[in-house]
Write a structure and sequence with these properties.
Oligomer: single chain
Structural class: alpha/beta
Number of helices: 10
Number of strands: 7
Strand order of the largest sheet: 3-2-1-4-5-7-6
Radius of gyration: 18 Å
Strand content: 15-25%
Order of helices and strands: HHEHEHEEHEHHEHHEH
Bound molecules: S-adenosylmethionine
Distance between the termini: 43 Å
Largest sheet: 7 strands, mixed
Length: about 260
């Protein structure tokens, strides 16, 4: 039997409300989001300061990222395939044009270009073919001087992800447990003509079933993210990408 595409996963009634609830109650998700917000604002400041910013939030879901950015950018567009997720986004967002569409089937936004494209909690979850076509569709919409920011919330080098993955392989090898390495992130963007210029490490201490306070997590992240050697072990890295200029830059970033 053919596996269902990730495209279908958030379409059922009530999924939007469920997702919203998940983000408001799960300590780890709340912690990651607090870190991600700072990083996204840092990216805006570091890479796009003083410029008009035209945002495309791909797979925008309930509008988490667009909600943070819509008042800070010139224009904001959110795209998703799930009406259920977008119903929540519509209640929340004021300045964002919300579009229910699958850009991987038909890139209806072409020939528009955006100088900031975000895609959070999408690429890890998507099956390999969807990852590739989505990255290519986004590369087509990225301005020559623009940046694409995406995350991978189960980095294979994280010891906690590895532990859960190993357990999954032992107990339920037929099931789905997606993981992605930083190498795979680089490969994915490279195939679409992009390169990673910076990776922000997020989420270092996530032992399964052990409650860890946000303040302890923040302290650990603060220290660990300053130590270059440790960066690769974070659970949820955020990558900043641009159109590939030459291979040397990507290689330099990979040595960081
Ligand atoms: C885990 S949610 C993430 C939502 C939001 N980006 C966030 O970080 O909160 C993943 C989203 O990807 C959407 N999605 C899946 N396939 C898609 C596609 N081909 N085009 C656009 N969105 C898609 C789902 O409908 C879902 O809303």
């Amino acid at each position: 039997m053919a596996e269902t595409s990730y495209r279908e996963s958030h379409k059922y009634q009530g999924k939007g409300a469920e997702y919203e609830q998940y983000y408001q109650t799960q300590a780890w998700q709340k912690f990651l989001w607090s870190r991600e917000q700072r990083i996204i604002l840092r990216v805006l400041d570091k890479y796009l300061a003083g410029r008009e910013v035209h945002l495309l939030d791909f797979a925008c879901g309930t509008g988490r990222i667009a909600g943070l950015l819509e008042d800070r950018v010139t224009s904001s567009t959110g795209v998703d395939v799930s009406g259920s997720m977008l119903a929540v986004a519509r209640e929340k967002l004021n300045r964002t044009r919300i579009i229910e569409a699958d850009l991987t089937a038909e890139n209806i936004l072409k020939p528009r270009r955006f100088n900031l494209i975000t895609a959070f909690r999408f690429f890890l979850n998507a099956e390999p073919e969807l990852r590739r076509v989505a990255m290519r569709a986004l590369a087509d919409l990225l301005d020559d001087e623009g940046y694409l920011v995406f995350n991978n919330h189960q980095n294979l080098s994280s010891p906690w992800t590895r532990l859960l993955y190993w357990r999954h392989l032992r107990k339920n090898p037929q099931g789905i447990f997606n993981v992605m390495s930083i190498q795979e992130m680089r490969q994915l963007v490279r195939e679409a003509g992009l390169e990673i210029v910076e990776i922000f490490p997020v989420g270092f201490f996530h032992p399964p079933k052990v409650p860890v306070s946000s303040s302890l997590n923040r302290a650990i992240d603060n220290v660990a993210s300053r130590v270059k050697f440790l960066s690769r072990f974070c659970e949820s890295p955020v990558a900043v990408c641009r159109r590939r200029k030459n291979d040397g830059i990507d290689a330099a970033a990979s040595r960081k």
